[in-house]
């Protein structure tokens, strides 16, 4: 493995880990914790402030993952040409990455609507109350389910990355070649 390959894989993995972990923590911890604010007008404001602080890191995480992914595809192009299973996995992974990116961007757009109404009372970061405006209420209802899309899709990407790593592992043909120690082993069912 070359240094360039190590850097590409590191960007891919660290970016994906940060993207997954940050969006999951935001949905569970930040949005969930904001509901504990005693003043209902603070709930959306606290959540919005946290997401605004996280946004530059999220964008950097997504960019690092994308850069690493593109570099890994470039490094693996010869293997992907001949390995159909790897090619299919790369196509699926690219589609899911694009969907996760679109969901993250759309969630940010909906979050900006929430931020504009941050002083309004709410039951939680993504739960309207009787005093919540129609615009904020609509954004909260969207964000209530949308907040889960990026962590779910990035979790799928982590699983697919593990699967691709297994596809890239060199099999041990040299160990099983005729005359090798492994080939000489007498195993049950082997003549």
Tags for this model:
single chain, 191 residues, mainly alpha, two-stranded antiparallel sheet, 3% strand, elongated
Summed up:
The protein is an all-alpha fold and 191 residues long.
Radius of gyration: 23 Å
Flag low-confidence runs: none
The assigned structural class equals mainly alpha
Q: Provide the β-strand percentage band.
A: under 5%
Helix and strand run: HHHHEEHHHH
Percent of residues in helices comes to: over 70%
In total, the number of domains comes to: 1
Strand order of the largest sheet: 1-2
The overall strand count is: 2
Outline: elongated
Cα end-to-end separation = 37 Å
Number of helices: 8
Overall pLDDT: 88
Largest sheet: 2 strands, antiparallel
Describe the structure in your own words.
The chain has 191 residues and is an all-alpha fold. It has one domain (3-184). The protein has 8 helices and 2 strands. The protein has helices at residues 3-34, 40-75, 77-82, 84-116, 134-146, 149-168, 173-176, 181-184, and strands spanning 122-124, 127-128. It has a two-stranded antiparallel sheet. Helix 1 packs antiparallel against helix 2 (40-75), helix 4 (84-116) runs antiparallel to helix 5 (134-146) and helix 4 packs antiparallel against helix 6. The protein is elongated and about 60 Å long. The mean pLDDT is 88.
Topology summary:
Elements: H1 3-34, H2 40-75, H3 77-82, H4 84-116, E1 122-124, E2 127-128, H5 134-146, H6 149-168, H7 173-176, H8 181-184
Antiparallel strand pairs: 1-2
Helix pairs in contact: 1-2, 1-6, 2-4, 4-5, 4-6
